[in-house]
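FAQ: What does a multi-protein file look like?

Like this. Sequence, then tokens, then the next protein.
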Amino acid sequence: MPHGLSAARLKHIDDFLQSRYVDPGKLAGALTLVARGGEVAHLGVVGAADIARVVPLKEDAIFRIYSMTKPLTSVAIMMLVERGLIALDDPVEKFIPAWKDQEVFVAGAPGRWQTRRPARPMQVIDLLRHTSGLTYGFQDRTPVDAAYRRGHVGVMGSKLPLAGMIAALADIPLEFSPGEAWNYSNSTDVLGYLVEVVSGRPFEDYLRDEVIAPLGMVDTDFHVPGDKASRFTACYGIGQGGPLVVQDDPTKSAYLKVPPYISGGGGLVSTATDYLAFCKMMLNGGILDGVRLLSRKTIDLMTANHLPGGQDLTELSRSLFSEATMAGVGFGLGFAVTLDPAKTMLAGSAGEYYWGGAASTAFWIDPAEDLIVVFMTQLMPSNIYPIRRELRTLVYSAFDD
């Protein structure tokens, strides 16, 4: 075939997902999009968008992409970097003065924190690569993330606006000195706030006008409008004993209204074809259909490993959970980056970059093979099954050239 992939082996992806996950009731449905050489080689859809209402999953289904929002926010901030309005080595306190006296956790709890001064101020690059010292409440590892949970800091569905999250974080110490370790965190939500400060426009407006609309991502937004609600999928979790239970009903979902908290780290809904457009722009060196968002050199910078000392995540991570495997994987400016495929124990290429979302969605881009894969489903949390690893094996086993 012109794209160098076996149609029969690509079809096996759908058969595998159907027999391994949909038929046994582990997933409601799944959509797999594989593109190579600028062409869609495979678009497979299995299962249901909503089991209770017997709605079949379709190609134009709208999914909660959660942390697959992060790469778009990272592109938004890098567009401002290219315009000279912000720099990677700028201290974050330059844009958030209330963070000027942030300190690092030593011991204690809210109201009686014991802290120390950081070795250096947090920089913009720390937010992009998750070396900021911030965390997520769900990490459930330290008194610091407990304070996030207690204050509902940076939580999807929060009634606090973005500026409220920034104010709350001023009163909670950092987990570690910026640059000292890697920890999956609310860093990208903070980047969304920086976009507001630097551009002088609401983050959602900037992202929509400068990234989403120019790429023709017509179904990507922070909420699902009424005329598209019939295409919105149900989101599931695992109940006691294993059956799927509805985690978010698409007919009652908070996503049907514009949220008070606009999360650059996890707030978007999208479709597979919309996200393909974003991936194409990245793979094409920052341009799609004549519209340039970033330069090729900026894309190269974003997709390089930026972990201090060239380390991988096994050496630097303190995170109990992330959307990346650790061995042989570094981190760029908004993406995990494969450094050594042998260490990942998966077929692939050095230099491929990727991320996923809390509801088990995933994507990766392999520049060496001119390959894009977008996977959509709705099951929380994303670490229940090894679907992402299995999908990599299935896709790379379809190579025919």
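And here is the next protein:
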Amino acid sequence: MDLSIVVPLFNEEESLPELMAWIDRVLAGREYEVVFIDDGSRDNSWSVLENLSSQYMAKLKAIKLSHNYGKSAGLQKGFELASGKVVFTMDADLQDSPDEILPMEKMLLDEGLDLVSGWKKKRHDPITKTIPTKLYNWMTRRMSGIKLHDFNCGLKCYRNEVIKAIEVQGEMHRYMPLIAKAAGFDKIGEHVVQHQARKYGVTKFGVERFTNGMLDLMTIVFVQRFGRKPMHLFGLLGTLTFIVSAAIFCYIGGYKLYALNQGIEAKNITEISGFYIALTGMILGSQLFLSGFIAEMVSRTDPSRKDYGVSKTI
């Protein structure tokens, strides 16, 4: 199989026939499959897919999830089914143009890349969506070190071995380049794609996507950097917090003893706010250190700890 196109969908009954016809027209003469993942749609999307399957036969695969799990779950199930040497992801709302498939495939193969991410340089979205998206992309570039302009573009192209080596969960579909890089696939390119105005229905994402996106970014960056060595973070923070707090505590207690020895009037240490700050810091430092120690013990029991993603052998 040359190409697989994975299309997660939720309530997109109107766009599906047009999307499938468009893909078939672009890939005429090529060996390909389109894998539709119906993420618990409540409209007639599944009936439409059943009708399309009789028309396109072996070119169309589809599964229906029991309820709405989210886009990441849909992509993961699609990746499990995809058999093409090159695998695309695409949204079902017709805002991603199938005309970009062949140019992106050529870029992937000619330049020896692992992943090509689409860049919607000119977007047909309201300013309330474009400005937060630019801030989100800027922050992701800064934290990940991957120089992409549009991390959340649904139109992406992968080598098959990439999608088989990664796992997408939660709402981390936005960070596919980061997940691929963490798995050792760091040859990542970017291709400017045409962004279509939405033709049917309404967007399925609300304001919460931006807050969830930031939380997911912090999670994935933390896991990548400290997932195998949590003690390096918690242990360091705990040790520094404890040492600084203990130094403050010793200074306050030491000065009190000095004052008593010299007959100097001094406040009771329980009347000094710094005493409580130091005491709290020592407790917090101890808890951080113990958290790192426990996390280290837990990580050592993880069967995937020794999975370092070997790519070549002789």
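Q: Is there any per-entry metadata?
A: Some entries carry free-text notes. For the entry above: DSSP finds ten helices and seven strands in the chain.
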